[in-house]
Amino acid sequence: MNFFDSLAISASALTAERQRTEIIAANLANAETTHTQAGGPFKRREVVFQTEGGSPFGLSLASARSGEVAGEVRVAEVVDDPAPPVMRYEPGHPDANKQGYVAYPAINPAMEMVDLMDAARAYQLNASAVAATKQMIQQTIEVLKS
Questions:
Q1: How far apart are CA 37 and CA 41, in angstroms?
Q2: What is the residue extent of each domain of the chain?
Q3: How far apart are CA 96 and CA 11, in angstroms?
């Protein structure tokens, strides 16, 4: 693996984590949304990461055997959480059903905040990797000058 492969992998991870953060922020913003254009409550969304060129396990095996560089990270898809909505008894609510229950998104703000902190930490670690790689490139140039 050369310096530029390292930069490309970290840059792709930065982009993927940014997208993950945007999805988490949308989940938090819509935690109380009971009616969408599609009808029904907002559905929590999750990001699925994938490495370019195959499964992470297969890439790890290939890297260990041949010394090749593992693939870049990307968002493979954004999927809806299959959890059923949370039903709350609010008979006066405009979205209440005949029994007086309102369907709210199955979003736990505490869990979303944990996911957000995890995404922010992963972003910071990749930014640190970019900075370290940049420093190594600069030091290599200085050594080659002398």
A1: 9
A2: 3-31+45-80+107-145
A3: 46
Give the pLDDT score at 52.
75
Instruction: Give the DSSP letter of residue 41.
Output: S
Residue 42 corresponds to which tokens in the numbers above? 């907002």
The CA-atom distances, in angstroms, between 122 and each of 87, 104, 108, 117, 129 are 34, 30, 21, 9, 11
pLDDT digits (tens, 9 = 90+) for 48-74: 999 876 555 555 555 555 555 567 889
Whether the pLDDT of residue 24 is over 90: the answer is yes
Q: How far apart are CA 60 and CA 67, in angstroms?
A: 10
Residue 20, exposed/middle/buried by CB under 10 A (0-12, 13-18, 19+)? Answer: buried
pLDDT in tens, 86-134: 999 999 999 999 999 999 999 999 999 999 999 999 999 999 999 999 9
What whole-number distance in Å separates Cα of residue 60 and Cα of residue 42? Answer: 37
Which are the contacts of 80, defined by CB distance < 8 A and separation ≥ 6? 43, 44, 45, 46
Query: 93 near 37, Cβ under 8 Å?
Result: no
Can you give the pLDDT at residue 58? 57
